[in-house]
Amino acid sequence: MKFKKLLAWTFAALAAQPSFAQSNATAPVDAWPTRPVKIVIGLPPGSGSDLLARALAQELTEAWKQPVIVENKPGGSGIIAASSVAKSTPDGTTLFLAIDANITTNPHVFKSLPYDPIKDFAPVTMLMTFSTLLVAHPSVSVSTINELIAKAKTSPGSFTYGSLGEGSNMHLLNATFEHAAGIKMMQVPYRGIPQMTTALMTGEVQFGWLGAFTAKPLVDEGRLKALGVSGGKRSNLLPQVPTFVEAKLPDVDVTVWYGLLAPAATPAPIVNRIHEAVARVIAQPTFREKHLTPKGYEPSGMGTTAFADHIRKELVSREKMIKQAGVKPQD
């Protein structure tokens, strides 16, 4: 009887553990791939992830002696692209180049997501990360994070910031900043980054969050000024800008990353083969100098297990941020 109870408890415990589905089935990995490989992204041609995917595809085409093509499926906050890969044959020939929000934010802001970030994917590798900066229009009479906090406390709600809407990384970053600093700012949503950037430069909104690559020329030209970098590491593109950790606000951290995922149940040997090939590409000095460093990207190459652990932890931290921001899940 005790043995049966122990066995039942063990199976229940195992069933309760969230895990990424990855098959250990034997596969002819040495011969893989035997047909073209497709990298699906949820953004249009010319976007950051598109350019990265095409640069990676070119290198992998040479390494695997098979065409590696990029397929753009924009729209729906990456949901269209993600769900198409989740439903693909798990043989490694259809991959998803995801941005962090596709995997760790969407599950908390959409009620009926057509994919599960844990059950429907086998993480391959994190490709890179990049810094996000809080920037301001030059007319705003603050130049540091602490100056902004002091001014905002004297007149709550008087400062505006641009975002891409409820639940976007920009909204989560600013909401976390407001909570940590004890201030209140007014959110102004925009359709896309170009529209928000224009609003920042014209002074339609006073503050906003931009990637270092986008912010650098505008800061260098004096069209915007940078107050702080999210997280604890300064940007290699704008090293003079202090971090929020330096301002004693360590919770203001949404690290944007690009990662590669395969459909669940893709054989582990194939997942590992893809990771090894991609890691070799990312480690190449010429690839970094041409495609990563100029854009402020920090190369990663994180392994499959570490990437899976990172996703699990970030799902928890993003849920906390989203609840704190008061975001209501959308239908």
Q: How would you sum up this structure, described in words?
A:
The chain has 331 residues and is of the alpha/beta class. Helix content is 42%, strand content 19%. The protein contains eleven helices and eleven strands. The strands form three sheets. Strands 2-1-3-10-4-11 form a six-stranded mixed sheet, sandwiched between helices. Strand 1, helix 2 and strand 2 form a beta-alpha-beta unit. The longest helix is centred in the C-terminal third of the chain and has 22 residues. The chain is globular. The N terminus is likely disordered.
List the topology elements.
Blueprint: H1 2-16, E1 37-41, H2 48-64, E2 68-72, H3 79-86, E3 94-99, H4 100-109, E4 121-130, E5 132-136, H5 145-154, E6 160-163, H6 169-181, E7 186-189, H7 193-202, E8 207-211, H8 212-220, E9 225-229, E10 256-263, H9 268-283, H10 285-292, E11 297-302, H11 304-325
Parallel strand pairs: 1-2, 1-3, 6-7
Antiparallel strand pairs: 3-10, 4-10, 4-11, 5-8, 5-9
Helix pairs in contact: 2-9, 4-11, 6-11
The CATH architecture of the largest domain would be 3-Layer(aba) Sandwich
CATH class designation of the largest domain: Alpha Beta
Number of strands: 11
**What's the overall average pLDDT, rounded?**
91
Overall tally of structural domains: 2
Helicity level, as a percent range?
40-55%
Strand order of the largest sheet: 2-1-3-10-4-11
- Give unreliable regions as ranges: 1-18
SS content category: alpha/beta
Largest sheet: 6 strands, mixed
Distance between the termini: 47 Å
Strand content: 15-25%
Tally of alpha and pi helices: 11
